[in-house]
């Protein structure tokens, strides 16, 4: 059984969770301890004790620890990728790429531990000097979703540790395997006991305890908008520092002058790979009328040729849906789209494979309207809809008509429209002639409107959340 890591010790919880593969629900990936609220409180106390010890270590020691973690992740990419693909259902190449990303993130923040920013200025008053220091926040609660079981934890844990904080990490219930493997590596990196704690278990128990504890000074959360809103109300009321990364309904605008093959590729890659389970996945194709039919037919042809299957099979291009609830929700949205009057061009059906898993064919709705539920609500599966637009201005207006604002793409050969879109699209990330999903780790990540709350993740912008600014005036 895989145990929780609390105060440097591996401890049983109060229950056990079976981690089953969505490619084959008879494949038991492993057994994982479930922490109680008391276990979580112990982890918070351990983190509170360890944090000043960790922050007092020389930056070189923090850098070396993060570098060790990154190096081991990279070395074990195939093994960890296989575990990830098995428990989450993305294909093996996608899973290995995610593991590599996690390793690179730790390497990046190993460097950042040596470059903690600060400023020195002359005061506006004579004889006084000003220092702007960045200091650790304290104990950080990290709450992760299931769709990137190692990369999202990495991009929260690495900066938290680099800047001298202690961590209590709660992975998603569905994917404890990758979280445990990552934690086991961190455990061997030479951190003082309690600097990093793993508490696996329910959101309503472990997550809620982190959210409510006044000793947890900051919470970095990625997950659904509903949970994010709940955390905002509860932890915001006690003035915790919050970073909430939530849902998306990302548009891909395709203009008449687009390179058709490139636009089809952006659509298929961005909307359907990783089984559409990416917060940055495009789920609304907003297509100018002159190219609409050719684009829709091209996407449909590509989808019908994609191989849906077991995450570990070599010819699989689209793995299963990650869990039963999400699977049922996806199929229900197909019915909703049909009942709203959208035309199902292809897919959206359950598929039988050799093993019992959550397989479905990738779905494309055409002739959808912007106000339909399938065009407004995040589905989080391999389902997208095509909406015709009169011209660029109309397309931009439709693209912006969403409560979300995470990532947005445009396919065009017009510099004029690309430049305009870059400035006038209301989203945290804009992609020009490249899929809406697929981001770099050394630059900021996050959205606007209902997609994100708080400061950006990743790259040097992570310092904003994981440090507290102190302004010091010295009269020499
Ligand atoms: P979720 O909100 O159900 O769960 C996320 C995490 O919150 C899990 O660890 C869960 O156990 C925990 N949780 C649940 N209830 C809680 C509570 N009351 N208090 C504290 N924690 C609680 O989300 P999910 O289904 O795991 O992930 C899918 C969602 O994540 C999608 O909406 C997707 O768009 C979003 N997502 C966003 C980003 C981004 O960066 N914007 C990235 C990936 C996924």
Distance between termini? 60 Å
- The outline comes out as globular
**What is the CATH topology assignment of the largest domain?**
Aldehyde Dehydrogenase, Chain A, domain 1
The set of bound ligands, ions and cofactors reads: nicotinamide-adenine-dinucleotide
Radius of gyration: 23 Å
Given the structure, what is the number of helices? 15
Q: What is the class of the largest domain in the CATH system?
A: Alpha Beta
Q: Architecture of the largest domain in CATH? A: 3-Layer(aba) Sandwich
The CATH superfamily label of the largest domain reads Aldehyde Dehydrogenase, Chain A, domain 1
Based on secondary structure, the structural category is alpha/beta
Helix content: 25-40%
| Order of strands in the sheet with most strands | 14-15-16-13-12-18-19
Largest sheet: 7 strands, mixed
Percentage of β-strand residues: 15-25%
Number of domains: 2
**What is the mean pLDDT?**
98
Describe the protein's architecture and organization:
This protein has two domains: 4-246 and 451-475, Aldehyde Dehydrogenase, Chain A, domain 1 (3-Layer(aba) Sandwich); 250-432, Aldehyde Dehydrogenase, Chain A, domain 2, CATH 3.40.309. Helix content is 40%, strand content 22%. It has helices at 37-55, 59-75, 77-88, 92-112, 151-162, 176-187, 203-212, 225-236, 260-272, 289-305, 324-340, 373-376, 392-400, 415-424, 462-466; strands at 4-6, 9-11, 15-20, 28-34, 119-122, 128-136, 139-143, 166-170, 196-198, 218-222, 241-245, 250-254, 282-288, 343-346, 363-366, 383-389, 404-405, 407-411, 429-432, 448-449, 452-453, 467-475. The strands form six sheets. A seven-stranded mixed beta sheet has the order 14-15-16-13-12-18-19, with helices on both faces. It starts with a strand and ends with a strand. The structure holds nicotinamide-adenine-dinucleotide. Residues 143-147, 170, 172-173, 203-204, 207-208, 211, 222-224, 227, 230-231, 245-248, 279, 378, 380, 406, 451 line the site of nicotinamide-adenine-dinucleotide (NAD).
């Amino acid at each position: 059984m895989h145990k929780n890591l609390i105060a440097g010790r591996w401890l049983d919880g109060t229950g056990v969770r079976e981690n089953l593969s969505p490619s084959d629900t008879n494949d038991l990936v492993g057994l994982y301890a479930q922490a109680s609220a008391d276990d979580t409180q112990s982890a918070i106390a351990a983190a509170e004790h360890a944090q000043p010890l960790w922050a007092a270590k020389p930056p070189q020691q923090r850098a070396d620890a993060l570098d060790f973690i990154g190096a081991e992740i990279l070395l074990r990419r195939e093994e960890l990728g296989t575990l990830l693909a098995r428990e989450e259902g993305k294909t093996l190449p996608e899973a290995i790429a995610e593991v590599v990303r996690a390793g690179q993130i730790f390497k990046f923040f190993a460097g950042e531990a040596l470059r903690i920013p600060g400023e020195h200025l002359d005061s506006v008053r004579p004889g006084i000097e000003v220092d702007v220091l960045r200091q650790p926040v304290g104990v950080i609660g990290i709450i992760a979703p299931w769709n990137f079981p190692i990369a999202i934890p990495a991009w929260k844990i690495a900066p938290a540790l680099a800047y001298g904080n202690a961590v209590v990490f709660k992975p998603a219930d569905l994917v404890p395997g990758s979280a445990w493997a990552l934690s086991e590596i961190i455990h061997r990196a030479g951190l003082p006991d309690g600097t990093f704690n793993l508490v696996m278990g329910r959101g309503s128990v472990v997550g809620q305890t982190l959210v409510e504890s006044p000793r947890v000074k900051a919470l970095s959360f990625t997950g659904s908008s509903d949970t994010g809103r709940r955390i905002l109300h509860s932890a915001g009321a006690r003035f915790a520092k919050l970073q909430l990364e939530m849902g998306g309904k990302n548009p891909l605008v395709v203009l008449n002058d687009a390179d058709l093959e490139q636009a089809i590729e952006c659509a298929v890659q961005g909307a359907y790979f990783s089984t559409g389970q990416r917060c940055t996945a495009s789920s609304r194709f907003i297509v100018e009328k002159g190219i609409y039919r050719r684009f829709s037919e091209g996407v449909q042809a590509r989808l019908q040729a994609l191989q849906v299957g077991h995450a570990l099979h070599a010819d699989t291009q689209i793995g299963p849906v990650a869990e039963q609830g999400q699977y049922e929700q996806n199929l229900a949205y197909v019915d909703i789209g049909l009942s709203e009057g959208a035309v199902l061009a292809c897919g959206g059906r359950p598929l039988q494979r050799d093993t019992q898993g959550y397989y479905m064919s990738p779905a494309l709705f055409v002739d959808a309207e912007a106000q339909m539920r399938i065009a407004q609500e995040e589905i989080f599966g391999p389902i997208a809809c095509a909406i015709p637009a009169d011209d660029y201005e109309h397309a931009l207006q439709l693209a912006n008509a969403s409560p979300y604002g995470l990532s947005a793409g445009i396919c065009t050969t017009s510099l004029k429209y690309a430049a305009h879109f870059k400035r006038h699209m209301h989203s945290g990330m804009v992609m020009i002639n490249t899929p809406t999903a697929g981001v770099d780790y050394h630059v900021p990540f996050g959205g606007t409107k209902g997609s994100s709350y708080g400061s950006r993740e990743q790259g040097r912008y992570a310092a904003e959340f994981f440090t507290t600014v102190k302004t010091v005036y010295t009269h020499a």
